[in-house]
Design brief:
2 copies of one chain form a homodimer. With 141 residues, chain A is mainly alpha-helical. Chain A has helices spanning 5-25, 33-45, 50-57, 61-73, 95-115, 121-140; strands at 77-81, 89-93. The longest helix of chain A is centred in the N-terminal third of the chain and has 21 residues, at 5-25. The mean pLDDT of chain A is 92. The structure holds a DNA duplex (30 and 30 nucleotides). Chains A, B: It comes from Paenibacillus mendelii.
Chain lengths: 141, 141
DNA sequence: GTCTAGTAGTTGTATAATGCAATTAGATAC
DNA sequence: GTATCTAATTGCATTATACAACTACTAGAC
């Protein structure tokens, strides 16, 4: 095991990534991980183009383009042409998309709640905040 | 954004998974994520068979079998037949594997250190410990 | 205004990690 | 000893991804 905190973080991050991946791979509800993130981003941060989304998630534009097409095909997002740029458009979440996102979020929350049953409020708070801080750190890099 | 801690954890976990995946996908040093985890597990927890490793990481046996074959081919692990079971064997890390693992770990540590430059010792400790706790929770589920 | 360079998005192709199914060979139970 | 179970391998299909080529549009230089 690791003595120092950096070593521990490094090691636990690797394991976390491995375990989270295997959980979220066989998807939760009807939205896979990418679809869920995309929908969430659009829902919480407003409609957005493929380029912006691909930057946000550090994915290739082509990947996001396909994910967006899949979401559109399912009726969870719709495209609004960008009035200022004929090449671009905005992805906007539909009512159906909102419902789906909400259901999915609840399913995910239920899993987390179950997992963290025995955690104290303070531990939960700290964990959430430290992860948020870490995520912000990651995006700047 | 999320008000309550469970919501925050849920949300940040999804983002963390996304960002970590994209970092570790274009591999660090010469070991990809799976190879690194496998080597690490063998190095720190002693030699182990394919079955045990696949349980540990919740991967299909076939996946681990391929990863192990790749590591063996590179000379990072060797197989020791299980004297008690003719079907099974143990994977043991070689000296070359130890060197490789160590170099790789240092490269990863350097990245983490860079990212967490501005974090306090206490934050680092908390983050590491909470992740470890969460990882243990995950494996029991 | 027109030409050139740059950019948003799509689609084709390749790759890598994975799971599942079938198989082999050895172990265990009765 | 026969039937069942299990560790590992290998073949096959799927999925997420990146990269490259392409289209259509924009913006800047002149």
């Amino acid at each position: 095991m690791e003595e120092n905190s950096l070593g521990m973080i490094e090691s636990e991050l690797a394991i976390l990534l491995r375990r989270l991946t295997s959980i979220s791979t066989y998807k939760i509800g009807s939205l896979d991980r990418s679809a869920y993130l995309l929908l969430q981003q659009i829902a919480y941060h407003g409609s957005s183009g493929v380029k912006a989304l691909s930057d946000e998630f550090r994915l290739d534009i082509s990947t996001v383009s396909r994910q967006a097409a899949a979401l559109e095909q399912k009726g969870y997002v719709s495209r609004i042409p960008d009035p200022l740029d004929g090449r671009a458009y905005f992805l906007q979440i539909t009512d159906q998309g909102k419902t789906e996102l909400n259901d999915n979020k609840n399913a995910r929350l239920a899993i987390i709640e179950e997992l963290l049953q025995s955690w104290s409020d303070e531990e939960r708070m700290m964990f959430g905040q430290l992860m948020r801080k870490f995520n912000r750190t990651l995006i700047e890099s």
